[in-house]
Each structure stands twice: as structure tokens, then as C-alpha cells.
Design goal:
Immunoglobulin-like, alpha+beta, 40% strand, 168 residues, 2 domains, four-stranded antiparallel sheet, 3 helices, single chain
Length: 168
């Protein structure tokens, strides 16, 4: 019984740290001599504030590109107007990435256009990413809300089993 309880604690701790990096790959394309990967956090992607990160790599050796000028244009599903942001390495926690905070105002398929300028060479990539409706607060934190009652119930069951074993 003690092993099962220890295993439960380890699994819950692992779940809390499994999303520490927090990025989900949304797009990966080649453009000229570059391989461009777009990550978003939080995962799953939903309407609201989002951290958009880009990893630029040389296509041949997959070394990270750290000296580029990056521009990102986002267009909402029902709009012709776009939001332009300039991801930088200073904004990113991981200094191999270019990052920028973005606000997805509505759910749907958003058009994404990336322009990279490096050594006089321009690389353009475009694609779409799917943004889900915003999560309700309670539904996004259900595991944290359910954790204390589950631990109390596990403790009560444990105590009853110990008392039952003591009577035998």
C-alpha cells in the first residue's frame, strides 16, 4: 500500500513538471536556407494571451540562427487587418528562440506570415494555426481543484485499512 501511495505522489509531481517547457509546435516549414518552427504556449492553444516562439535553424546542419531580424503577421479569421509583432531573443526565456507575446482575440483559423531577414537574404513562410475558444477558469484548473479532496479521501481510506489490519 505504501508503494502505491508513493507512486501516486511521484506521478502527480511528474505531471506538474511535464509542462515546464510549455510549448507546442504549431508550424514547421522550410524557407530558403532556413527551417522555421513556431511554438505556442500555453498548450493547447486557445484565445487570449499567448507566447509565440520561433526556432530558426540552418536547413543543412540544423544549427540555430541567432542573428536574424524576424517579423510575424497574424490575421484573424474574419478580418483582413493583421497584427504585426517582432519576436526577439531578448523576449524569450530560451535564448535560442525568438519570442513575442500575442493576443488572440477570437477562436478560429488564424493566418500566420513570417518574414526573416538575414545577411541580405529574405525568407518568407506562411501557414495557419487553429485557436480554440478561451477556456473557462475552473475547467482549465480542474486538476488542481480536485487534488486536495482526492488526497483527503486517500488518507481516510489508508487510515481505515490500518485500523482494520490492527483488529485482525
Amino acid at each position: 500500500m505504501r508503494f502505491n501511495l508513493s507512486l501516486l505522489v511521484v506521478l502527480i509531481s511528474a505531471r506538474a513538471t511535464a509542462f515546464a517547457d510549455g510549448g507546442a509546435v504549431q508550424l514547421r516549414k522550410q524557407a530558403g536556407s532556413l527551417l522555421i518552427t513556431v511554438f505556442t504556449s500555453p498548450a493547447p492553444l486557445s484565445a487570449g494571451p499567448v507566447d509565440v516562439s520561433l526556432l530558426l535553424q540552418n536547413r543543412n546542419g540544423l544549427e540555430p540562427v541567432l542573428d536574424a531580424d524576424v517579423s510575424l503577421l497574424l490575421r484573424a479569421p474574419a478580418s483582413n487587418e493583421g497584427t504585426r509583432v517582432r519576436p526577439t531573443r531578448q523576449e524569450a526565456q530560451n535564448k535560442l528562440l525568438y519570442a513575442a507575446p500575442v493576443m488572440f482575440t477570437e477562436p478560429g483559423k488564424w493566418c500566420l506570415a513570417i518574414t526573416v531577414l538575414r545577411n541580405g537574404e529574405r525568407s518568407d513562410v506562411s501557414g495557419t494555426i487553429v485557436v480554440a475558444p478561451a477556456q473557462k477558469m475552473a475547467s482549465s484548473y480542474w486538476s488542481y481543484i480536485a487534488f486536495p479532496p482526492l488526497m483527503i479521501a486517500a488518507y481516510v481510506v489508508r487510515e481505515r485499512l490500518i485500523r482494520r489490519r490492527a483488529r485482525w
